[in-house]
Design brief:
With 66 residues, the chain is mainly alpha-helical. Helices cover 50% and strands 0% of the residues.
């Protein structure tokens, strides 16, 4: 399978997901489960006081072309 670029079309058509699943089957990567991702987020947010600001970095077109 060729390497898809990160585009709206590849996300919408599922091409990126197929690529990721293939890479996972081949042992090239391991993705976090939704539960693990949520637990990681909760651990990170627990380090901040509720009234404290949290800065989030967004790169390039992710800011201007969500």
């Amino acid at each position: 399978m060729s390497h898809p670029t990160l585009t709206r079309e590849n996300i919408a058509t599922g091409a990126l997901e197929e690529f990721m699943q293939d890479a996972e089957r081949r042992g090239l990567l391991t993705r976090m489960s939704d539960e693990d991702r949520e637990a990681s987020r909760d651990r990170t947010l627990a380090r901040f006081a509720p009234e404290e600001d949290i800065w989030v970095f967004g790169y390039g077109s992710l800011i201007w072309n969500p």
